[in-house]
Structures are given as C-alpha cells and as structure tokens.
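Morning run. Coffee first, then this:
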Amino acid sequence: MRKIKSQKTKELFLFFVLFTYIIFSSVYGLLSPFLGVIYCYFIFNLKYLEIKKKYFYLLLVFTILFEVNHGFFMFSSFATFILLYFMFIDENNPKQYNLKSLIFGFIVLSYIFFYYFNYLLSYLFGLEYPVLGFHYIQYIIIDFLIALVLFL
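And here it is:
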C-alpha cells in the first residue's frame, strides 16, 4: 500500500516539475522544449527499448501544453511523430546502429520535421511562418545531452 502512495506522489511531482518547466520555457526562450527527448521516448517506447509506459500520457499532455504555449498548431507534434516514425524509423533495424547516433538522428529529425510541418500548415492556412533560428540548434544540443543521460 505504501508503494502505491509513493508512486502516485512521484507521478504528481513529475507532473508539477514538467508543468513548471513549460511555464519557464514560455517565459525564457532559451530553454529547450524537450521535443526531441519526448520523440525519443515515444520511438523507444514503440520500437526499440520497450521502456515502461508509465509516463506516456503525461508526455502527451506535456506536448499539447507545449504546442498551445508556444503558438504551434494543436496536435502537430503527433502528426510529425507519425510521419517521422513511418517514413524513417519503422523500417530500420536498431541493432545495426550505434544508440548514440540513433538518439542524435531522432532528435535532429524531430526538430526538422516539426518545423517544416508547422511551416506547411502555416502556408496552407495563410498564417505567419515559424522562424527558423539559432535556438533550434541550441534545442537540439540540449535535448541530445539530456537524452544521453536518460536513455544510456
């Protein structure tokens, strides 16, 4: 019984930390939105490492709040994840590659696909285009370092 209570406390604490991070990342533009880390978690959860699915729905809520907070299209991260997964990742055999290079590739592809998908949607709906800047490179580096700590 005690283990269940501590598990719920841990999940509640993680949700609070992620929610606080979303607020800080909307105020401070230099903080990474962890989009690449979340994509890596989804990919490893679906295909490679079979990570436990405890926090899967929490990360879905995190991505929705990220999109709403930063002015992206709703569910664009899910659409880009599905495109990325079925175009590049579904056919590859993970035993042929180094895990560090896979993580870096997943993160770079996730940011590129997310940017261009939002660019396409902005073009289709006649809205302002998202700006591609140096901060995307910074986000890729930060997400790569965090993913190395989490997945290796």
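Residues 38 and 125 are 27 Å apart (CA to CA). Good start to the day.
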